[in-house]
Write the structure tokens for this entry.
Amino acid sequence: MYPADLLAQMPFAVLAGVELGSATAGEVTGRLPWAPQRCTAGGVLHGGALMTLADTVGAVCAFLNLPPDASTSTLASATSLLRAVRGGTAHATARPLHVGRSTVVVLTEVTDDDGRPVASVTQTQAVLGRG
């Protein structure tokens, strides 16, 4: 499945402005350009926008690691916000930490245009309806 097809299944992510780059079981990348409507006070990209980016990229990574005919749902998500984004683009890279029979755990690192850490997100996704 192509990144655009995966993203099309998540209308909120599309509405939020998330863009997917590459998408394999081992690594998923995405980005979210800075825009005034995505900001909080002082022109800082809203933490919820960064979390949406990370959740989307992490969910795609989990999905790509599912067995056939299974689906997934987030059980837990822990976010550490590390740096403000005041322009440019937030970049996310998600990689699986654990792929098990009942859960998939994904680590998503978010950086700014200079490669500096912006956020770190660990998601635990349930494996539902295994075929």
About this structure: The domain at 3-128 is CATH 3.10.129.10 (Thiol Ester Dehydrase; Chain A). Residues 69 and 131 are 5 Å apart (CA to CA).
